[in-house]
Fold each of these.
Amino acid sequence: MSPGYINNKNPKYLEIDGKFYGGILVIDYYREYNEIIFKNLINTNVNMNISIFYEKQDTYRTIKDLTYFIGNVGVDLKSGNTNREDIDIAAYSYNDAKFIRKEMQVNNEELYFLYTYINIISDSEKEMERNLNKIEGILQASGMMTRKANFRQEQLYFSCLPLMINQNDVKNVCRRNILSNGLIATYPFISSTICDEEGIFIGTNIYNNSMILVDRFNKEKYKNANMCIFGTSGAGKSFYTKLLILRYRILGLEQYIIDPERGATCCTLKRCA
Ligand SMILES: Nc1ncnc2c1ncn2[C@@H]1O[C@H](COP(=O)(O)OP(=O)(O)OP(=O)(O)O)[C@@H](O)[C@H]1O
Ligand SMILES: [Mg+2]
C-alpha cells in the first residue's frame, strides 16, 4: 500500500511512484448559487481526487457571535462617518450577518464550514500542468475562485486521502461558511453512470472514465436481458461478445452460443470449459 518514494522537492507538485500530484484549493464561491456546482468538474475525464469537508457549527454560539457582530457593525454604520473606505463592505457583511441570523432562527437552518480540495493525478509534469489549468478553468467558469496549492502540496495530498484529516495549513485558506440550504449545491454524487450492484464490467464512460457495470438479468430494473452491439467492421464486436461470455462464465452462468459463421467463439469457450 505505501509508496516506494515521495519526492516533495518541487513546491508545484508531489511525485509519488512516478505519478505527479498537483493540488487546487477552492477559496471562494458565488454568493448565491442554485445549481450543482461540481457538475462540470465531475463530468471531466481528468484523473483526480476531490475532497469536501463539512463542519457543522454550534447554532447557539453562532447566533450569539452574529448578534455581537451585528450590534458592533450596526453602531459603526450609524456613527455617521459615511466617508470610510470600507463602509460598503461593512454594510454588506452587516446585511449578510442579519440574513444568516434570520435563516437560522426563523427557518431552522444550520451553519456549516465548507472546505473543498482537488488533487490531480497525472503521468507527467507537462500533463499535470495542462490538467491543472483545465480544472481551474472549469471551476472558475462555475463561479469558484481557486488557487494552486503551491508549497502546500503535501498537506493537500493528505487532506484528499480517505483519512478524514483536514490539515490546518490548507484549512485556513479554504474555510467558507454556508447554510444547510446551500450545501445541496455541493452534492458530488451526480455522474450519470450505470452501476448495478451485481453487474459485470461492460466498459468505461468516455466522458468521465467511470466504470459501467450492468446486471442484465436484474428483472426489477430491466424489462429483459436482450442486448445489441453496433460497430463498424473490425471494430471489435465479436471480441467484445467473447469477453462478455467469459465474464458471465466466471460468474457460473450457463450459456448457449449460436454462431452461423462457426467463429472463434467456440474455441474461446472450449478453452475455458
Ligand atoms: N479490446 C480489444 N483489444 C485488443 N484487440 C482487440 C480488441 N477488440 C478487438 N480487437 C481485435 O480487433 C480485431 C477485430 O475484432 P473483431 O473480429 O471482434 O471485430 P468485429 O467488429 O467482430 O468485426 P466484423 O464486423 O468483421 O465481424 C481482432 O483481431 C481482435 O483481436
Ligand atoms: Mg465479428
Note: The chain has three domains: 6-57+110-186, 59-106, 200-272.
Amino acid sequence: MNIKRTSPSLVERDAAVSWHPYTQHGIEVAPLPVSSAKGSVITLEDGTEIIDAISSWWAILHGHGELAIAQAMADQALRLDHVLFAGATHEPAVRLAERLVEVTPEGLTRVFYSDDGSTAIEVALKMVIQFWQHQDQGQRRVFVGLEHAYHGDTFGAMAIGDPDPFFEPFRELLFGARLSAPNIKAITATLDELGDTAAGVILEPLVQGAGGMLMQSPAFLRELRALCTARDLPLIADEVMTGFGRTGKLFACDVAGIAPDLMCLAKGLTGGMTPMSVTMASERFFECFVSQDRGAAFFHGHTFTAHPIGCAAALASLELTLSRDVPAVLDKIGARIESKLREHLWEFGAEPSGASKPRVLGLRRQGGIVAFDLAHGEQGYLASQAPVLRQAATARGVLLRPLGNILYAMPPASTTVEQCDRIAEVLVELVEVASA
Ligand SMILES: Cc1ncc(COP(=O)(O)O)c(C=O)c1O
C-alpha cells in the first residue's frame, strides 16, 4: 500500500512547540503563518497579503524590510558582530549615543543601552532609586505614574504599570507604586501625601498605548514638568511607543516642548528591525554615580548591551527618520485615516448625528496614532469581542489588534493612501461586526 505522507504545516509544528505571548492557547485561533513582509504588507505562506496597520506591535517604523537598515546590519555583522560593553567600546555605540544626544530633548546627555522597552524602564527605575541613595535620601522609593499605565512586563515595569488586567497574578509581589488620574491636581495630591518618600514621576507622554491609546494634552505634560521641577523630582518619559515620530514630532516630549530627566526608547529605535533600547539620562544623574567608590557604580548590564548590529540598525533608521521627515509622514497617514473614519463614523454616532445611541465614542488622533472606543459590548482589555474583531480584520486583509473595546491603527511610514483608506474602511466595518 502506498501511504502518502504530507509534512506538517507551519501552524501544526508551531502548535506542538511554541508558547505565544499574550495568547490564551485554549481559545485562540491558529496564528498567521507569515512567510515574508515588505513595506506595509505582510505575506502569508499561501500568498495572502495583509496590511500591517499596527506596525507589528508598534515597532516597524519605516516599513518592513527597509533595505538601508538591513544593509547597515549586514555590514556591521561582518565588521564587528558583538563585543562586551563593559571595559570596551566601539564606533556604532558611540556614534549612536552622540546622535541620540543631538536629537533628543535638551539636557539628556548620557545613553545607557539595553535590549527592549521593559529593560529600558528597569534601568530608569534603578537609576532613580540609586540616585536617591547616593544623596542619602534612600527613603525616596515610591514612583508615581498614571492610571492605565503600561511600561512592560518585567517586575519593575509591572510594578509601575496598572495591574488591571495584565499583572493581577503578580500583584502581591510588586513594589508599590502610586497611580494617579491624569490631571495635575490628582498628581499633586499624591505627591503631597508621599512627601519625602516620592522617588519620581513616570508616564507615557501624550499617548498611553496598551492602556487604550488614551491621549493627554501637551499642556498637561508642561504642567507635570513644572510640578516635578518645583519639587526636584525626576520626570521619566517612557517614549518606548511614542518615540521616533509616532506623535507628529520626533518625540512626544517635543510636542509639548519639555525635556524629561530620563527617557526610555525602544521599538522604533532600530526601525523595528532588531531589539534594542536605551535609557537616556541627564548629566546630573550620571555625575551622581561617579566617585572613587566601586560600590557606587550603576550595577546593571546585559550580555548584549550596546550590541553593534543593533546600534548600526538604529543609526541607519535615525538617518532615514530625519531625511524622510518620518514624523510628518506619519502625521499625514494618521490624518488620512482619521478623515476617512470621520466621513463614515458619524453614521455610528462619533459625531453629533442625532443617532439615538452612539456606537462609537472618542475618535482621537495624535500624529500617526488613531483610535476610538466601541460604545457597546464588554469594555476593557479582556472584552471577548477583541479576538473576534481581530479575525474579522485579518479576513478583510488588515492586521489589527483591538485593545479590548478600543480600536486603533498605527501603521508604518510606508503606508500608501490606498492602504490608509483600506485600514479606515475595515475599522468602519468592524464597528458593524461588533454591533451585529
Ligand atoms: C509605553 C511602553 N513602554 C514599555 C513597553 C515594553 O516594551 P517591550 O515590549 O519592548 O519590553 C511597551 C510595549 O508595548 C510600551 O508600549
Note: The mean pLDDT is 95.
Amino acid sequence: MSETLELELRCEDADATRRVGAALGRAAAPGTAALLQGQLGAGKTVFAQGVGAGLAAPSVVNSPTFVLVNEHLGGRLPLRHADLYRLDDPDLIAELGLFEAAEDGVLLVEWPERADGALPADHLLVRITPLTDAAGDAAPRRLELSASGPIARAALQAVERAATVLA
Ligand SMILES: Nc1ncnc2c1ncn2[C@@H]1O[C@H](COP(=O)(O)OP(=O)(O)O)[C@@H](O)[C@H]1O
Ligand SMILES: [Mg+2]
C-alpha cells in the first residue's frame, strides 16, 4: 500500500500558484482528482486556471457561478471543475456524479468539505493558506499538497520534480 505523499510549496504571487496548477495539469492521468481547500479568495480558482492551462484546455477556467460543475473539453483530458460553495444539500452530490466525472479526466473540487465525503478516495488534497492579508495578485500563499492513492501520488511526484523550476 502506498503511503501518503506530501509536498509543501510557497507561492509568492498568483502566477506562481498557477504554475503549480499547470504542472499538475501536465502530469495528470485520467482519474486525477484534486480537492482544493482554502478560505474565500485563497487562490483555489487561480490554481484551477493553472490546471486548465497545463491541460491545454481551450476555455477559461473561472468559478462556476450558476452551476456547480463546469466542463472544459478540448484539452489533453476532459477537465471538470466543481465549486460546492453553494451546495447546501449534500444529498445532491450524488446527482453531480463527481465520482464518474473523475474516471476519464481530471476533476477539481473547490469546497470539497461540502461534499460530505462523497468524493474519490484517490485524490490530491491541495490546501492553500494566505500568509499575509495583503490584497492584490502578489501575496504569498502556502500550498500543502498531499496525495492519497496511486493516481494522485504519481501526479504529485511529477509536480514535485517540476517544483524546483516553479518557485
Ligand atoms: N500567491 C497567490 N496565489 C494565488 N492567488 C493569489 C496570490 N496572491 C494574490 N492572489 C490573488 O488572490 C485571489 C484568489 O482568488 P480565487 O482564486 O478566486 O480564490 P478562491 O477560488 O480560493 O476563492 C486572486 O485575486 C489572486 O490574484
Ligand atoms: Mg473559487
Note: Residues 11, 13-14, 16-17, 38, 40-46, 110, 137-141 surround adenosine-5'-diphosphate (ligand 1) (CB under 6 Å).
Amino acid sequence: MIETTPYSKFSSVYDEVMDHVDFQEWANFIIGSWKENKLPDKILDLGCGSGTLLSHFPSSINTKVGIDSSLQMLETAKKKYPKIQYIQGDIIYFSLKEKFPLVVSTHDTLNYILQPEKLITHFQTVNKNMELGGYYFFDLSSEYNLIHNFHKKQLFYNIDSVKLTWRNTYNQKRKVITSTLIFSIFKDLKIQKYRETHYQKFHPHSIILKILQKTGFSLVSIGSDYKTWTLKKDCCLINYLAKKIKEIK
Ligand SMILES: C[S@@+](CC[C@H](N)C(=O)[O-])C[C@H]1O[C@@H](n2cnc3c(N)ncnc32)[C@H](O)[C@@H]1O
C-alpha cells in the first residue's frame, strides 16, 4: 500500500463521486444572494478542486480564478475549463495582485483547516485579497452531517479501472473526522493500492462568528444546503455569506 497525499488519487474519480452535486444550483444560490445591483466582474474560488463550480457562474463574470493545493485536482480542472485561471497554493496564506469583489469556498473545504489560529489567518488573508464591501461566501460541514452521514460509514465506488473504499470515523471530543480512502487501481494486469487520509474539523458557529468579527467581516446571512437562507437543524452544509466591512493590517 502506498501512502499518498489527499486528492492525489481522489482527483482521478472526484467528478464521478460528486456526480450527485448540482453545481449549477449552487452557483445560482450564490449569485442569487449577491446584494449589489451589478454582478461582480471577478470571482475567486478557494479550494476550487476540479473547477466545476467556477464553470457554472455566469460568463459575464470576466475573471474567474481558482486556488487549490492539489496539483492533480488543478490538472483535471485545466483540462476541463482551460479559460479559468488556476493557482496552486495554500488558501491559508496567499497574496494576489488584484482584489476580488466576490470570494467563494465550497464543499467543506474550510473544514480541512484544523487549527482555529489557522482559520483566523485564512480569514485575514481573504480580507486582504478582497475589495472593501465585497462578499465572502463559504460553507462548512455541520456536525449533524459528520455524525449522521459519515461517522462509521463506508462508501464503495467502482469507476473505470479504480475501486475506491472510503471509511470515516468522527471523534466527537476532538471534533475531527478521519476519512481513509483506499484506491485499488488496475493497470497492466496488476493492482496497485494507494491510501489517502483526510482530516477535517467541525468548526462551531460561535467560533466562526468571533473569527468573522475579528477579521473585518460582518455576517450577512446563514443558510442550509444551497437551498434556503435559514439555518435548519438537519442541514449538511451550512452556508455563510459575509461582507468585508473593514480593512485589516
Ligand atoms: C472537498 S474538495 C472541494 C472542491 C470544490 N470546491 C468543490 O466544491 O467540489 C476540497 C478541496 O480543497 C482543497 N484544499 C484543502 N485544503 C486546502 C488548502 N489549505 N489550500 C488549498 N486547497 C486546499 C483540496 O485540494 C480539494 O481540492
Note: The chain has a mean pLDDT of 96.
